From TrEMBL, chains A, B:
It comes from Nocardioides luti. It is found in: Cytoplasm. This is Gamma-glutamyl phosphate reductase. GO terms for cellular component: cytoplasm. Catalyzes the NADPH-dependent reduction of L-glutamate 5-phosphate into L-glutamate 5-semialdehyde and phosphate. The product spontaneously undergoes cyclization to form 1-pyrroline-5-carboxylate. Belongs to the gamma-glutamyl phosphate reductase family. One of its GO terms (molecular function) is NADP binding. Its main location: cytoplasm. Pathway: Amino-acid biosynthesis; L-proline biosynthesis; L-glutamate 5-semialdehyde from L-glutamate: step 2/2. The keyword Cytoplasm applies. Its EC number is 1.2.1.41. Keywords: Amino-acid biosynthesis, Cytoplasm, NADP, Oxidoreductase, Proline biosynthesis.
Length: 417, 417
């Protein structure tokens, strides 16, 4: 009860602070962002000390080392957070951009203008660097932000947010443009999801379970991010050298990320030529293959279950199948893909054209690794997440995706006849 | 149970049909739209007969005459439906439009392309003409549509959809690109709201109660439309002749629509000059004024409750208040507006600039009637509704707003270093 009240109070303060932030000039917002970066650098020792508390607590609680690693702040990571804020300051301000405009036949001037959402809620796991990244992107796009990080990072997040709020005030903005959501039980997440009218959009970042629960329970509009069951399809007309390089890169370049490949499909006509090479190369890279009968003919390949094809492993595992033709690949992808990133490797223009038209994913790639689906790689300069939904934003979301629009209509006493 | 099964089956068929429709050329879609228009004209007698059944049932059930009128099809309304479909055929195809594109530093070619949502669910009340309008807009934007009209219009809707499906098939599209949702109990609406994964977006059109219930209960993403508690603010620097014309037009041009004005705010400095004129003019037009104490000083003005300021009357009623200054007007609008359309009347450039920046509504109008917030008036050619939410689309929604996008990334064996 009291958690719910606290969260709604915080949301109401965010709403109030959002009015001023929406009207803030780019110059003021950039001053705040640079002050935030300087503040993080200046508070280096305090932040590492706060983080050490979180790390000690996690280690004492038996948290697995890879999760503890994500939680840990280092001098390098802190410098990266500060640089991230400076990078966002250097990006153009999306607010005020005229998306379209015209003068109507009756002389009315119509302009569609980018405006902030208002209040954004971020729900995320572990990594404390997301706290600064998200706050920076929200601030630049004119949105007050409510940050609900992992309870395991509570000391780090509190220290970071303290620095960010002080910097906002130093630039003449209200402290409440950046707030940590009070409470670290699930009740505070629940209250955030029910704060319709006070919070304009919720963005969950984290595992599939977190995202699913927010999508299903929230009455606040949600932007779904990041689950990636990504496919690489090797066509009959593939250059098999390119195919091999792309499969390896997509699977092994970094396994814990949403744009890593989780499933390999191979056209039957090139199976004999490609399977021996790709099985060996993947196994040499430490990958466990979960394959259909064409693949299990090779040593060390495990038999894939239906479940495997639907799984986002986020590990050195890949499901694999031979498909009879291009349409078979498309059918497989339609059935199992999470519609994040799916790639075809082919030298056949007609196959590429059909695949890119028929596969309905946030990113469809031709002769390129799925790892390229990323705001940084796309040149957006900053990324709040990768949307896998179709409403509002799809694919990597940069600053413009963190805004809404409004129509400004200017007349001179115009009435409808 | 059986309704739910039927609805999910229909949604699955729509999903299946959506794949082919997404790939259909503009030429084929336009052929279907023109065949639909011709089909409605040819089926004139059958459609009026089906409609007569609905009207007779409504009248026998004691439905109020204004609702029966909305339900009634006439030769003129049928011709309007056919013309609407021809108009949509003449509009450019949003699918395939390249929204942005560039070649990245590494040579990857990036294109963000408009694609259909997939399957759209429409939930709407009474008017059978919405059936043809919505089907036409969805088809042109490449979306299969599930139409859940009012049960009071079931004979009309079934007859119209029969014609539309036949026309789709004659143009080489699958019949299931247009379907009436089976069942006319609330169960079928419920099943539609839970068909996440089969239905990509739900658009409720109708009264505030319908929209609220869909927004709250649906796990399918919703585009909220149409509730309009719209304000006209008469500034101290207003040209009072323009102000009078705009207030009258916004309130009385058509009262049952979402862009009609429901609340009048007047700057204290012009209250003595403007109130006598506007009270008389509104009352002469048959409007009941629910005002604060400044207004109740005039004969026939009723005292406004808190409730009045929050009400979308959709009738010849208007709430009214005198505000101390521009910021007072903005505060009032922030508190009560449904963020649909809010207008300022002023000759003061600085006041107009501040109002348009500070009022966060789908449309903010300067010296123009709120009645202009309309897809037709904005030159969109077709409108599926007016979004009052901030995600995805805001304000009148035309064909581009009925699409998502995807990124197509083309390389030549690119892998991430």
């Amino acid at each position: 009860m009291s958690t719910e009240r606290d969260v709604l109070d915080a949301a109401a303060r965010a709403r109030e602070a959002s009015h001023g932030l929406a009207l803030a000039t780019r110059a003021r917002k950039d001053r705040a962002l640079l002050a935030m970066a300087d503040g993080l650098v200046a508070a280096h020792d305090d932040l590492l000390a706060a983080n050490a508390e979180d790390v000690a607590r996690a280690e004492a609680g038996g948290t697995p080392p890879n999760i503890v690693d994500r939680l840990r702040l280092t001098a390098e990571r802190l410098a990266g957070m500060a640089q991230g804020l400076r990078d966002v300051a250097a990006l153009p301000d999306p607010v005020g951009e005229v998306v379209r405009g015209s003068t109507l036949a009756n002389g009315l001037e119509l302009r569609q203008v980018r405006v902030p959402f208002g209040v954004v809620g971020m729900i995320y796991e572990a990594r404390p660097n997301v706290t600064a990244d998200a706050a920076g992107i929200c601030l630049k796009s004119g949105n007050a932000v409510l940050l609900r990080g992992s309870s395991s990072a509570r000391s780090s997040n509190a220290a970071i947010v303290g620095v960010l709020r002080e910097a906002a005030v130093s630039a003449g903005l209200e402290a409440d443009v950046v707030q940590l959501v009070p409470g670290d039980s699930h009740d505070s997440v629940k209250a955030l999801m029910r704060a319709r009218g006070l919070v304009d959009v919720l963005i969950p970042r984290g595992g599939a379970g977190l995202i699913r629960s927010v999508v299903e329970e929230s009455t606040v509009p949600v932007i779904e991010t990041g689950v990636g069951n990504c496919h690489v399809y090797v066509d009959r007309a593939a250059d098999l050298d390119k195919a091999l390089a792309i499969v390896l890169n997509a699977k092994t370049h970094r396994t814990s990320v949403c744009n890593a490949a989780e499933s390999l499909l191979v056209h039957a006509d090139v199976a004999d030529a490609f399977l021996p090479r790709v099985v060996t190369a993947l196994q040499d890279a430490g990958v466990t293959i979960h394959g259909d009968t064409a693949f299990t003919a090779y040593d060390g390949v495990e038999a894939a279950s239906e479940e495997d094809y639907a799984t986002e492993y986020l590990s050195l595992d890949i499901s694999a199948a031979v498909v009879p033709d291009l349409d078979g690949a498309i059918r497989h992808i339609r059935r199992y893909s999470s519609q994040h990133s799916d790639a075809i490797v082919t030298e056949d223009q007609s196959a590429a054209r059909h695949f890119t038209a028929a596969v309905d994913s946030a990113a469809v790639l031709v002769n390129a690794s799925t790892r390229f689906t990323d705001g940084g790689e796309f040149g957006f300069g900053a990324e709040i997440g990768i949307s896998t939904q179709k409403l509002h934003a799809r694919g990597p979301m940069g600053l413009p995706e963190m805004t809404s629009t409004k129509y400004v209509v200017t007349g001179d006493g115009h009435v409808r006849p």
